[in-house]
Amino acid sequence: MRNFISLLLTILSINSYGQIINDESYLDLEFLKFKTELLNCVVAKDTSKLKNFLAERVLESKNGCRYPGCSKDELIKYYFKENADHSWQTMLSILRYGFTKLEDENPNKIVPHDKIIFQGPSYLKNLNTDNELLILGENVNIRKEPTLKGSIIRTASYEVFKCDCNIFTMTDKTYQIVDGVSWIEIKLNGNEIGYVASKLTSYDLIKEMTIAKVNGKWKIISWFQSSGC
């Protein structure tokens, strides 16, 4: 219970950083209840309960079932049993950074659903992931070189930076692994560049989760990772 309360306080503090992270879950009280129950399930890492939150088929890409997605049993097998720790942490992070309320222009694809959907993480609405990333933390160090020994240029908290983040156009300097740490190059003022540990940025949170009403009940209909990631 203490961990759950701490997580809720963290979510509230994150939402104070402005428009880039703007959880709109409160716009639908029924959805907010669904999200809270899902959060409890994720914190407990309960695969049997998770099945109740999934649509009969869930869109996903790159791994596992590919298009047109996984059955709920396949999704749990591929992501929450064989790659469990990473998947639970990813879902927890998406819940942490909230959802944007949208209207789906094509609600009949994969799993027919109502037009109103909630997509997370919420910052994707205002972030161009091809050339921007978001720092996901407080007082994160930005270094002059991609190493823990590199001098600290400045710190940043939930701030957006330009980057060459498109996997098809990035250079060898964009993403580097040095001494076991993955670094992403970001652009600062003028022509200055810096490096930040990628695990502390949106670059590493590559899943998008979509929740919609299916036959009158909120369900996860997408656990999506864009091709090339």
Q: How would you describe the shape?
A: elongated
Q: What class would the helix/strand composition place it in?
A: alpha+beta
Element-level helix/strand string:
HHHEEHHEEEEEEEEEEE
Our Rg estimate from Cα atoms comes to 18 Å
Please give the alpha-carbon distance between the first and last residues. 35 Å
Q: Quote the average pLDDT.
A: 88
Strand order of the largest sheet: 2-1-13-12-4-3
The number of helical runs is 5
The percent range for helix content is 25-40%
Topology, number of strands: 13
* Major sheet: 6 strands, mixed
Unreliable segments of 5+ consecutive residues: none
- Oligomer state of the chains in this structure: single chain
Q: Give the amount of beta strand, in percent.
A: 25-35%
Layout of helices and strands:
Layout (H helix, E strand, L loop, with lengths): L1 H13 L14 H16 L2 H7 E6 L10 E2 H9 L3 H14 L2 E4 L12 E5 L11 E3 L5 E4 L8 E5 L3 E3 L12 E4 L2 E7 L5 E5 L9 E8 L2 E9 L4
Parallel strand pairs: 1-13
Antiparallel strand pairs: 1-2, 3-4, 4-12, 5-8, 6-7, 9-10, 10-11, 12-13
Description:
- This protein is 26% helix and 28% strand.
- With 229 residues, the protein is of the alpha+beta class.
- The strands form four sheets. The protein has a six-stranded mixed beta sheet. A three-stranded antiparallel beta sheet has the order 9-10-11, with no helix packed on it.
- It is elongated.
- It starts with a helix and ends with a strand.
